[in-house]
């Protein structure tokens, strides 16, 4: 049996391979999949087997998966085509005889105010209907999501949002990758859906305090309405499509879509989740 992990040229997929190896798995029993193998030569150098896995070509999945393998489907980023891609990949993995499918979904995907989390439901349904034993990992908010905000905050001292008092229980990508590794390498997870979020929920006012600490300067959270937020972004040259997406995400956070906590993540990885400030320090 091998552990086949997709999208390993991306952040989460690569971190999942590293977490599986850190748990003592023989590299020869790990297959790292990517569309472009040139991007994962470092994994191959560690003894990990590599395979082309292209979500637009399900035959690459049947070529990579052998009967009994654990197949980790890291969610794709082609939102326009993702439902079709995932459904075809899942069918191919089932046809190849995968022993279990693990899918990285979105927190509270079936009960969320955040569209980007709810968008995972069609894939969850495809996994459940595949006839293959499965585990759903509903990933919450990544603390690393704030990497893109740090340059502006460092320059202006202002954290702009329309999140209101919404709480966010973020976790580090490493935490979530460890959860993948635990589920892929241990028994007893079949049929389970885990809601994975950080141990501590914080507001954007508290995020501003954490950013001030790591940046060594005063940081103010400027909370505005959704309409004002959108106007500010468009005036700054952000394309309307991305401005609308950013405002929709903040509206979901304001509604508490990423504040849910039940301890699943810390229980799976056997330790407290990584504090927000600790992750922010790695991003500056």
Plain-language structure description:
42% of the residues lie in helices and 14% in strands. Helix 4 links the parallel strand 4 (70-73) and strand 5. The N and C termini lie far apart (40 Å). The strands form two sheets. Strands 3-2-1-4-5-6-8 form a seven-stranded parallel beta sheet, sandwiched between helices. The longest helix has 15 residues, at 240-254. The mean pLDDT is 96. It has a domain at 3-141 and 172-197 and 260-273: 3-Layer(aba) Sandwich (Rossmann fold), CATH 3.40.50. It has helices at 11-22, 41-45, 59-64, 82-95, 115-118, 121-128, 150-156, 173-185, 204-215, 226-235, 240-254, 264-269, 276-283, and strands spanning 3-5, 30-34, 49-52, 70-73, 100-106, 134-139, 158-161, 193-196, 220-223. By secondary structure, it is of the alpha/beta class. The protein is globular, with a radius of gyration of 19 Å.
Write the layout of secondary structure elements.
Layout: E1 3-5, H1 11-22, E2 30-34, H2 41-45, E3 49-52, H3 59-64, E4 70-73, H4 82-95, E5 100-106, H5 115-118, H6 121-128, E6 134-139, H7 150-156, E7 158-161, H8 173-185, E8 193-196, H9 204-215, E9 220-223, H10 226-235, H11 240-254, H12 264-269, H13 276-283
Parallel strand pairs: 1-2, 1-4, 2-3, 4-5, 5-6, 6-8, 7-9
Helix pairs in contact: 1-8, 4-6, 9-13, 10-11
What amount of the residues lies in strands?
A: 5-15%
CATH architecture of the domain at 3-141 and 172-197 and 260-273: 3-Layer(aba) Sandwich
Poorly predicted runs: none
Order the strands across the largest sheet as they lie in space.
3-2-1-4-5-6-8
What is the string of helix and strand elements?
EHEHEHEHEHHEHEHEHEHHHH
* CATH level-1 class of the domain at 3-141 and 172-197 and 260-273: Alpha Beta
Shape: globular
Helix content: 40-55%
Task: Please identify which CATH superfamily of the domain at 3-141 and 172-197 and 260-273 we are dealing with.
Answer: NAD(P)-binding Rossmann-like Domain
The main sheet comes to: 7 strands, parallel
The class by helix and strand makeup works out as alpha/beta
């Amino acid at each position: 049996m091998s552990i086949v992990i997709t999208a390993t040229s991306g952040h989460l997929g690569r971190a999942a391979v590293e977490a599986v190896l850190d748990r003592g798995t023989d590299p020869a029993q790990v297959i790292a999949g990517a569309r472009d193998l040139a991007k994962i030569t470092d994994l191959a150098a560690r003894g990990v087997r590599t395979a082309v896995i292209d979500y637009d070509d399900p035959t690459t999945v049947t070529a990579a998966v052998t009967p009994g393998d654990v197949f980790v489907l890291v969610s794709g980023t082609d939102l326009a085509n993702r439902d079709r891609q995932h459904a075809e990949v899942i069918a191919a993995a089932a046809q190849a005889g995968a022993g279990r499918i693990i899918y990285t979904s979105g927190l509270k995907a079936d009960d969320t105010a955040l569209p980007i989390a709810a968008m995972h439901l069609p894939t969850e349904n495809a996994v459940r209907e595949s006839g293959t034993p499965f585990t759903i990992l509903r990933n919450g908010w990544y603390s690393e999501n704030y990497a893109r905000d740090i340059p502006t905050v460092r320059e202006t001292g202002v954290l702009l949002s329309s999140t209101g008092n919404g709480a966010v229980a973020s976790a580090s990508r490493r935490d979530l990758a460890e959860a993948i590794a635990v589920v892929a390498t241990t028994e007893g997870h079949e049929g389970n859906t885990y809601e994975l979020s950080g141990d501590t929920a914080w507001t954007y006012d508290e995020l501003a305090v954490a950013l001030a600490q790591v940046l060594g300067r005063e940081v103010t959270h400027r909370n505005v309405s959704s309409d004002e937020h959108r106007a500010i972004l468009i005036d700054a040259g952000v394309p309307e499509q991305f401005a609308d997406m950013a405002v929709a995400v903040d509206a979901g956070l304001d509604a508490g879509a990423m504040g849910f906590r039940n301890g699943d993540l810390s229980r799976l990885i056997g330790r407290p989740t990584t504090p927000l400030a600790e992750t922010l320090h790695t991003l500056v």
